[in-house]
């Protein structure tokens, strides 16, 4: 880090392109930029890079904003939109043209294609050959009529661009490796690489944390920044996120909008915790709060190697946060999700009591909803399955158990005692009685402890469902 950046207030930015949803990779970049700024008591800026007019959509902008809001990544300034800053970019391009650091290029698409083909045939690097680049003593071609030129940056041809990357360490790129980048299209609109430079400079960004797919852009941007006379930020390029199979993360791995993770039943704090560990660590700590992340987060523990997305690990982290979550939050989320599938929690046991029993069995809010749903819907009894479980001894046990419900104390202890005495009287193993009971009461065979299930369902419901099951068995 240069002395210059040390004395300036830390300012980071997240600058997504609104051509799609906010995916895991983008969310992690936003998180790291946010956490770095918060760690250094700096500012975090949100900038929407919407110069790709054909692909940018208001829906994508809203998806980005929704994702940031869900993750609670608050920003201090913005959102700024590049399309609202076009006059400023054009002014800076004019400045470069005036000082001789940019020039007009009239090459047609056909000429550029021919240039590339000739380079390919000769085994040369594919690059612009400098036809319209002005040099002392050089005669430029005649300006063709009716051709709107692009503007190219006059990249230095000697020396190297060097920076000390926050993640990857010292990087050096020879200028001869770089050709003259187009910074304004033929219609006059500035290009991405130019807009980014102007924005980072004028927004006084001190640290740029972004994916390492931008490394090739960085030396070009540094050279443009130097030509404009701007202060160079500190760059940090984080490796990509891979799928469980080691391939680039795609939709089949779960590369979906972060908002879909909300729909899938993940808590934002769990997602923050999990994303933070995908390329950063603090010792062996796996679980940490947002406050701890801010306290610990700096560039020294950012990984140089790609991280692998692990859905099972994410579910494990989420299960931890669900168990620690305020009960009022879990109740609200579960009630809403039950209502969405047509179930009314007023028509059944107290939801908080249900959550006490089922929360240990779920790793997502969707699983929690499904576990809780058992207590608010009439089960569909699989009679054929029930009949495979009920031999004469089981049938006798179930009959006696139903009769015993009239006099038992309606507590976990009382019902547990009745279960035990019934299996002892009829010489049954616990599953032989509990499995058909579960099926009759809930429609499934995997549930929480059967005595806890019965306490929550209430005596009249339990008796009615067991009686119905016995009628089906005896019919």
UniProtKB/TrEMBL annotation:
Keywords: Aminoacyl-tRNA synthetase, ATP-binding, Cytoplasm, Ligase, Nucleotide-binding, Protein biosynthesis. It catalyses: tRNA(Glu) + L-glutamate + ATP = L-glutamyl-tRNA(Glu) + AMP + diphosphate. Its EC number is 6.1.1.17. InterPro entries: aa-tRNA-synth_I_cd-bd (IPR045462), aa-tRNA-synth_I_codon-bd_sub2 (IPR020751), aa-tRNA-synth_I_CS (IPR001412), aa_tRNA-synth_I_cd-bd_sf (IPR008925), Glu-tRNA-ligase_bac/mito (IPR004527), Glu/Gln-tRNA-synth (IPR000924), Glu/Gln-tRNA-synth_Ib_cat-dom (IPR020058), GluQ/Sye (IPR049940). A motif ('HIGH' region) lies at residues 16-26. One of its GO terms (molecular function) is glutamate-tRNA ligase activity. Catalyzes the attachment of glutamate to tRNA(Glu) in a two-step reaction: glutamate is first activated by ATP to form Glu-AMP and then transferred to the acceptor end of tRNA(Glu). This is Glutamate--tRNA ligase. The gene is gltX.
